[in-house]
Design brief:
- This protein has helices spanning 2-11, 23-26, 33-43; strands at 52-58, 64-70.
- It is α+β, with helices and mostly antiparallel strands and 71 residues long.
- The protein has one domain (2-70): Peroxisomal Thiolase, Chain A, domain 1.
- A two-stranded antiparallel sheet has the order 1-2.
- Helices cover 35% and strands 20% of the residues.
């Protein structure tokens, strides 16, 4: 749910420019959501070498996961 992701990110102090949300365009891509979003951000020039990237995903049944990496 793109709105849920945006609300959680804004509550955590992230700006809309820092978010990559693909659900509004592609729908539910399940396990592919994080790699598709990462590819989108790299192609858009939003991620550069040395950037810290937080990747997170929410799933059905309140499952979630995240990873913090240096690109």
């Amino acid at each position: 749910n793109p709105r849920l992701v945006q609300e959680c990110a804004l509550s955590a102090g992230f700006s809309p420019k820092q978010l990559v949300v693909i659900g509004d365009r592609l729908g539910n891509t399940a396990a592919a959501s994080v790699p598709i979003g990462l590819n989108t951000a790299v192609r858009d020039g939003r991620i550069h070498s040395g950037d810290t990237v937080l990747m997170m995903s929410f799933g059905a049944g309140m499952t979630w996961g995240w990873s913090l990496v240096t690109w």
